[in-house]
Design goal:
Strand order of the largest sheet: 5-6-7-10-11
Strand content: 5-15%
CATH architecture: Alpha-Beta Barrel
CATH class: Alpha Beta
Structural class: alpha/beta
Order of helices and strands: EHEHHHHHHHEHEEHHHEHEEEHEHEHHEH
CATH topology: TIM Barrel
Distance between the termini: 29 Å
Number of strands: 12
């Protein structure tokens, strides 16, 4: 239904017409996907797309190894095509594909006009497309205006692209990922020394200056929207560690100088089951106190935060209410399931209004943005309609322009305003 056929204003008397109006506006509003693991075509094989990449995503690997008569080692010895065929047989044919990861594949096929029961035809349709043209088609299907990549200068496959003068791509923005720097300082020292930075394992005064120089150079080279790190659940601040020193005396000063936030993604427990490889990571509850202390000690820095454990979510909302320099974002990894997304989105709206980012795709395979945003838009619509109905029945009057403004905030503008405005390529 066109919004032109709906009333411009919504009151108690016509409140039932709110739902189709909000649905239409949410569907029409392009999203800024503020955290993905996608890449522009210039990065070559780092850009993952196609049916076999979708089917061998680590969510589905963990799921299939629960039910298939195969060991992890035997599974990983298969070719990617053989792995995909096994997953299709076990999770889509031998069982109905009702998990969120399975449903996501079906949504992708459906939105791209493919028969979700015909694996061969889907492969033929997707696997041989020009990557740049395919990005355009996928972004159109997901209604994405821009996606922020995850960019690691310690990655030997990625760094040469940046050093070679990557000119940028208007569909993609950068985020500087610094996990090796903060979580593995001894090895980072060796890499930095090899690149000509005068650092030492003890993090002396000269080393701190050099780390700040390294960060500033890469923030500038990438025109990065933020710096980011994934942290374990036992992350603590303050503490006597290289990581705490680096954050306080290198990362946060560089972020302040560049005017970018520092994003913390906390709660992943690496290799709970090492045999599963990338699919073997787990989750545990984190200490929000570390976040509170950072936000309080560094009020001139901005912090982005997402947490992997459901048990952390209410406490994180309370922290965001107390620290205006803290912005919660997304439903990360194990939380990217409709029941949990809805629970978290309702709680955040009730406690934070529009001063949060309800979702990011975290997509590692290009086509995943289609299902993650299709499913998330539906949830955001349901929650927002309920909240609008609450205030309309209390006597508030809404109009379509106000709804559009609110939705634009949820789907990107809140993030941009927090970061200090839109990027040049938005």
């Amino acid at each position: 239904m066109s919004t032109a056929l709906l009333p411009d204003q919504f009151t108690r008397e016509n409140a039932p017409k709110l739902s189709p109006a909000v649905a239409k506006i949410i569907a029409e509003t392009p999203v800024l996907d503020m955290h993905t693991h996608l890449y522009a075509p210039d990065f070559g094989d780092l850009l993952l797309y196609g049916v076999d990449e979708l089917l061998t995503y680590h969510y589905l690997i963990a799921e299939v190894l629960r039910v298939a008569p195969i060991t992890p080692d035997a599974f990983y010895a298969l070719s990617k095509r053989e792995q995909a065929d096994l997953i299709w047989r076990e999770l889509f044919l031998e069982r109905s594909p009702i998990s969120e990861a399975c449903r996501g594949v079906l949504t992708v096929f459906d939105k791209l006009g493919l028969d979700c029961t015909d694996l061969g035809a889907a492969r033929e349709a997707l696997d041989h497309r020009d990557p740049s043209e395919h990005i355009d088609a996928v972004f159109a299907a997901a209604n994405i205006r821009s996606a922020i990549m995850t960019n690691d200068p310690f990655d030997d496959a990625e760094r040469p692209v940046w050093e070679g003068g990557f000119a940028g791509d208007p569909r993609f923005q950068a985020a500087l990922r610094i996990d090796p720097l903060l979580n593995d300082w001894p090895n980072a020292v060796k890499r930095l020394q090899g690149w000509g930075f005068e650092v030492d394992a003890d993090l002396g005064p000269k080393a701190k200056v050099e780390v700040r120089r390294f960060l500033s150079e890469w923030l500038t080279r990438m025109n990065a929207r933020y710096m980011a790190v994934s942290l374990p659940p036992d992350f603590a601040y303050p503490e006597e560690s290289a990581r705490a020193t680096l954050i306080a005396e290198c990362v946060l000063p560089a972020a302040r100088e560049a005017g970018v936030p520092f994003a913390m993604m906390i709660g992943v427990t690496r290799q709970v089951n090492p045999a599963l490889r990338l699919a073997g990571d787990g989750v545990a509850k984190a200490d929000i106190g570390a976040v509170n202390r950072l936000c309080g000690e560094f009020p001139d820095n901005k912090f982005l935060l997402t947490l992997l454990s459901r048990e952390n979510q209410h406490e994180a909302c309370v922290s965001a209410r107390k620290f205006p320099n803290l912005l919660l974002f997304g439903c990360w990894w194990f939380l990217n399931n409709p029941s949990l997304i809805e629970e978290m989105t309702r709680m955040r709206m009730e406690m934070l209004g529009f001063s949060m980012v309800p979702q990011h795709s975290d997509a590692r395979v290009l086509e995943q943005v289609i299902y993650k945003w299709t499913h998330s838009r539906d949830i955001i619509w349901r929650v927002l309609v309920d909240k609008y109905n609450d205030i309309v029945h209390a006597g508030w009057v809404l109009d379509q322009a106000t709804i559009r403004r609110d939705v634009e905030r949820l789907l990107g503008r809140t993030f941009e305003e927090f970061c200090g405005g839109a990027a040049e390529n938005d």
